[in-house]
Amino acid sequence: xxxTRLTRLGAVGTKSRVxxxxxxxxxxxxxxxxxxxxxxxxxxxxxxxxxxFAENLAIVRGRLNRPLTFAEKIIYSHLDxxxxxxxxxxxxxxxxxxxxxxxxDATAQMAILQFMSAGMPSVQTPATxxxxxxxxxxxxxxxxxxxxxxxxKEVYDFLSSACAKYNIGFWKPGSGIIHQIILENYAxxxxxxxxxxxxxxxxxxxxxAAIGVGGADAVDVMAGLPWExxxxxxxxxxxTGQMSGWTAPKDIILKVAxxxxxxxxxxxxxxxxxxxxxxxxxxxxxxxxNMGAEIGATTSVFPFNDRMYDYLKATKxxxxxxxxxxxxxxxxxxxxxxxxxxxxxxxxxxxPHINGPFTPDLATPISKFKEAVETNGWPEEVKVGLIxxxxxxxxxxxxxxxxxxRDALNHGIKSKSLFxxxxxxxxxxxxxxxxxxxxxxxxxxxxxxxxxxxxxIGQWDRKDVKKGEANSIVSSYNRNFTGRNDANPATHAFxxxxxxxxxMSIAGTLKFNPLTDKLKDxxxxxxxxxxxxxxxxxxRGYDPGRDTYQAPPANRESIxxxxxxxxxxxxxxxxxxxxxxxxxEGIPILIKTQGKTTTDHISMAGPWxxxxxHLDNISNNMLIGAINAENGEANxxxxxxxxxxxxxxxxxxxxxxxxxxxxxxxxWNYGEGSSREHAxxxxxxxxxxxxxxxxxxxxHETNLKKQGMLPLTFSDPADYDRIPxxxxxxxxxxxxxxxxxxxxxxxxxxxSSFDVKLxxxxxxxxxEWFKDGSALNTMARKSARAASxxxxxxxxxxxxxxxxxxxxxxxxxxxxxxxxxxxxxLNRQGExxxxxxxxxxxxxKEENAVVHEALLTHWHHDHINGVPDLLKICPQATVYKxxxxxxxxxxxxxxxxRVDGATLKAFHTPGHTVDHMSFxxxxxxxxxxGDNVQGHGTAVFEDLSTYLTSLKKMKxxxxxxxxxxxxxxxxxxxxxxxxxxxxxxQRENEVLRVLKFGKLDVDATxxxxxxxxxxxxxxxxxxxxxxxxxxxxxxxxxxxxxxxQVLNKLEAEGKVKHDRDSGEWQLIAQRPVL
Length: 1074
Fold this sequence. Notes:
By secondary structure, the chain is an alpha/beta fold.
């Protein structure tokens, strides 16, 4: 039986030369950035990698040759491929490697259900789940927590067991709000994290780029895949002066929101800088970053400063603060860094602000707010004042609020309004209980709620007004969309600082200005409230309170994660159907939404939160809050088939049952608000094809793409007004291509038709998601291909030289084959070939296989002896080789070989040798790399630039394994080859550093600014003795060959010059060294 066509002979025989082993990627062996400092006290073995960040930045600086903003430094230091990544702010799609993932309990359910379907045993990136969304505010903290534990037991048990199973940290109900827990325990300066909540940017107060994403993005990162982000623009906000009196950090972001509006930050990172940042507390900076979500910003960041260091120290993470000081130069913007837009705020002149109602960007300074209340006819009475939430529940916030409350109590008065207090974490609750602020706020009239989101996200069983009753509430929350807090569309919700919330609650009216207006004490005497005071950090340190953390167990294999098939809260996900490859013709418009369509309108929270783990049940809330442009009503649309009016979800279900696809037409900034991916999952589940709008909020647009839907925008926004709500449309999906519009053909009822052009932001990978039916389907497809690798590949291994393995790969149809290891280690020149031939004979006999064709990756004098051995064993074999010698058959670049379901495509990858070919194994997304990838010590026998180009070509070709000519199998080829590329760049940096400074031990972050007094001359062997000082001297001579390759490359680039007579090399002094 002949079932094998390929035997790869890229490494037959042994090498006569000595290969230099890997020295690693160390920049400087004794560099302060070499320290091992753990990211958090809750996990072991997860370290902050400032050294890697610095290396990536050095590469990017060399490419961009310009000063960088702090936001850019964070993002670019986390690039998956700093060498090859296209970088253009606002245009390029970046592949990034975040440091960690955080999920809250409402979004974690769907994220974990998706991760389970990926079939992986453990998360590949550190992750945590935080139980904060499912606790309804009703009676007060402990009672509400007990009730939540009872009614949410099924979900909590699911999350707890899944976290234990998949190595995820679990913060139990009552631990606090995700963003406060992250700031207290996980954020670190210069890091990059993602979280399945739109207010994840809160952690930017500690100098980390923390970005809100949908669950599908989180699944990618947890599965170890790079995360894709469109390269953000950077909006600078320069702060000068210093706040005082009633002005609080919250007023900065309220002012910025008024300037930029709810969509002004879309696609951008807000970077705060300037001398004014030094006066802000770490938690105050967190407040500002938190509300960046309200202006659509990707995230917000502050530069590292002493206030951050103090906070790290206070939260028992001084070692991180000390480490950050070593890297401090890269934890702020470069001098001369340019921003896409720049605002400036003088904190000394900034007034307290109040924003709202119904939108967080309607900003009014306190001096003009009374007039705005009267002019707009807003309900004057403050029915409820609410402080706390993730935005404003720090020790400083609570201390300042308590100082105002104490001032009122000292005058014999309390809150006129109902008043609630939401501690951000158990640590905050325990600390303010110990220090007395909590008792003051309770004495003032406050009801202390659970350490959870509560009313901020609509988890509020409000009793004091009826639905539809106009009223006003004032909160220190972050969001105030219609009906968000209490599901009452007539509630006028205003957001401001905790200070003004307390003051207005004392007065009981929106028209009160504490800076100018007087109150009356219990005896009728007038007085002015004293400006708030409060410490940023507790003098006695934080009290951790109750233990609410569950660490993953050491033994996780026996843990079972059960989902009941009869559950109405949890549902195992079924994959979405792939695109049928056709244009959609004659499909209806489910709804044309008018005005704001936030994620709250698309998938309401509140009582619906309990169904977040059950896609079919929660889909019954799809778009029920959106206003229909046809009739101005919510949740009432006309069924295009029956002609009857019905609820939006019911109409969509009817279309789905009939096999009819549908689209939604939307207005500006569609999908603003939270990160909830349910707002994308629900329309996909109910049969939607596309959402067509004037513009999208960033996270929602990505979520729609991830679920296999088409988020499209009118190329001309005015076309929104041309679309009749009762028209049928054709969507020409077959036109979908990167950078090209697609056509919407509109058929109004009058029988006419017209075309509208639609724009999109899909790249090639995202188009794959659409074609496959979802990003998860794409991942599953590629995982299935990866899982099949062992079924078609077997290798015969021997040693070359003693520390390198020699392999031959044999593809075999549909057989599961295992690795055959040599029983004898061979470590001398010439000894490997006979043993290899014996092993090959054994394997062919065992598999009943015959070699018909052999592909050589390249030709070395030490490989050719293997060819006669093969031909003796299989005389019928045809031997193929690029640039053939001695009768082989030529291989051309791009030539395809097929056998038994295996497709191998040859492509030229010179560098190790001029004739070197690699082979892509298409069915398994794998690559046979020959000798081109055999570790950091791969010898280069020609131009180093050519070799690096080949490495980049291989890296970009596949996502699966690489089978090299020497060394172990590489399971994730792109990541490992990326390391090799970085290693080569590091060698180049080391050569430059020694040429310039005469030594290696120079801080990598400082080299760009250094200026040598003289330029030294070096021979290659002299350079080797410095760079490879830890390597045995017997290996210095072969190492010099690699150094010469680096020098030749640098000479071609104009960075060094060579004296041919003396053999010495010099740095060209006027060029910067990175």
